[in-house]
Amino acid sequence: MTDLSSLTSWYADWKGLRVAVLGLSMTGFSVADTLAELGADVLVVTERADAEYARLLPVLGVRLHEGPLDVVPEPLDAFDPQVVVASPGFPPAHPLIRWTQERGTALWGDVELAWRVRDKVTRADGRPADWVLITGTNGKTTTTRLTAEMLVTAGVRAVPVGNIGTPVLDAVRDPNGFDALVVELSSHQLWYLNLQTGPDALSPHAAVCLNLADDHLEWHGGADEYRAAKAGVYARTRVACVYNKADVATREMVEAAEVVEGARAIGFDLGVPGPSDLGVVDGILVDRAFLEERATSALELTTVADLAERGLSAPHVVVNILAASALARSLGATPAHIHDALEAFRLDPHRIQVVGAHAGITWVDDSKATNPHAASSSLSAYPGAVWVVGGLLKGVDLGDLVRARGASVRAAIVIGTERGDIVAAFARHAPAVPLFEVDHAETEDVMARVVELAAGVARDGDTVLLAPAAASFDQFSSYSDRGERFADAVRTWIAGHGGESRP
User: Fold this and answer.
1) Which residues pair with 386 in a beta bridge?
2) pTM, whole model, 2 decimals?
3) Residue 456 near residue 462, CB atoms below 8 Å
């Protein structure tokens, strides 16, 4: 194995290092572009290349191989890479990942590379930006956006990056530089990051795992492997390990983590906080962690009533706000900064978004609820809803969700290609609930039929909730596409029944 111990700076000697980049998505291109700038010898290997990326690679001096990857392609074998950097879509069982590990070649993700070259642009004191890591089965993107906006309000040059959409390497190479990178990490990215050990491995200022529930089990190979990937977010944390007091798995992760001496455990939940926690007291969000008199005092951040005026009072959103506040406070944001940031914050589309209301029925798009944990949070915010559920289950059993929440819904409308398991779960756990199936093979417009059925069963005062608890790729191009089609169908129905459609 090549000695890579010296490659811990942008200004190290990367010239001529043979690096194979697996995948050519936005992440893969950012890796290839960075390595080319560093002077490495780069080969990109992908099944299919985006035309624009394929056009740019030769300009950068990067070679490209396109074709099937079920076996190791000859050009990759002949290249004899010293490092392989894989895009997060490549699971541990992929033939190219197994090949890399069997031959003893260093295996990185884009986050590892970004950490190694983080000193390209430094702050005024000469230090690279602090990193804040955020993961969890649900709430990652909202918490990442919240944390970054709280820090920016506090005058910290911060940016949300990673799984949220902007590659970490793009931020590291930004010539203007940042004081803090707020990095959303998927379990896939964490799996690669967890392969890295030693004194130069990533060491964040603060980290949080928001919650843990079964998801992506096919990619990881099982629930234990998924949990282990998530737990890696806390490794080598220097200041604040933020965890969810209502989710015992996150506390256990912090207890087991190898952190830098002096790092504190900071809890959050919707209850009354202890002296190292954030929580809620009589409708007031408070901090008892980041003040000297925390044994006897608390600092007010905002109120649930204020959050309700901005559509931010659903319990799982309040939890995300508390987690983000803890992370921002660890980097010096004041309660006033947090309050001001929340005044301006709005949720992204397809996250408990009201898309219409007419004839006493409210229609809510939470298409981003792509797993049971997220759907459970939505159903707790809208008890008694007409529930639109189903899609690509990713190997996850919805039985526990239906047992816990199914009996309380007004009705369920089941969509997707894996409806059978959901219908069977209702038959076992909530047989009295009216159940409707929408077979996409029998109708051209799934969501129009969903809305027609929902309108027929909903009563005055009801909510129709799209919280699928499943991925969208069996019928739609993305969760956004699914949500937009739902919203369009709702608006069409409202307009056809004498109401005014919302934009």
Assistant:
1) 411, 464
2) 0.84
3) no
Give the model confidence (pLDDT) of 7-41 as tens digits.
999 999 999 999 999 999 999 999 999 999 999 99
Question: What kind of architecture, by CATH, is found in domain 18-108?
Answer: 3-Layer(aba) Sandwich (3.40)
Residue 395 has pLDDT above 90, yes or no: no
Q: Looking up tokens 């010898």, which residue turns up?
A: 41
Domain at 119-344, CATH from 3.40.50.720, 3.40.640.10, 3.40.1190.10, 2.60.120.10: 3.40.1190.10
Domain spans, the chain: 18-108, 119-344, 353-496
Instruction: List, for residues 60-112, the tens digit of each pLDDT value.
Output: 999 999 999 999 999 999 999 999 999 999 999 999 999 999 999 999 999 99
Which three-class secondary structure state does DSSP give residue 83? Answer: strand
Backbone angles phi, psi at 467, to 5 degrees: -140, 80
Q: How far is the C-alpha of 437 from the C-alpha of 486, rounded, in Å?
A: 16
Q: Look up residue 423 and give its two tokens.
A: 């219908």
CA quadruple 474, 477, 479, 482: dihedral, nearest 10: -80
Helix or strand run (H / E) with residue 193 = helix 187-193
* Angstrom distances, CA of residue 15 to CA of 31, 170, 334: 15, 20, 44
Element (H, E) at 374: helix 372-381
CA distances to 378, 394, 503 from 490, rounded to whole Å, are 19, 28, 11
Give every CB contact of residue 151 below 8 A, 6+ residues apart in sequence.
158, 179, 180, 182, 328, 331, 333
The yes-or-no verdict on residue 441 having pLDDT over 80 is no
Tokens encoding 274: 């202890």
The predicted pLDDT at position 165 comes to: 86
DSSP H helices in 266-358: 304-308, 315-330, 335-344
The answer to whether the beta carbons of residues 356 and 363 sit under 8 Å apart is yes
Long-range contacts of 280-287 (CB under 8 A, 24+ apart): 280/304, 280/318, 280/322, 285/318, 285/321, 285/322, 285/325, 287/325, 287/326, 287/329, 287/335
Report the C-alpha gap between 294 and 279 in whole angstroms: 13
Res 503: pLDDT: 41
Which CATH number, 3.40.600.10, 3.10.20.30, 3.20.20.70, 3.90.190.20, labels domain 353-496? 3.90.190.20
Among left, alpha and beta (phi > 0; psi -120 to 50; other), residue 498 is left
What's the pLDDT band for 55 if we cut at 50, 70, 90? very high
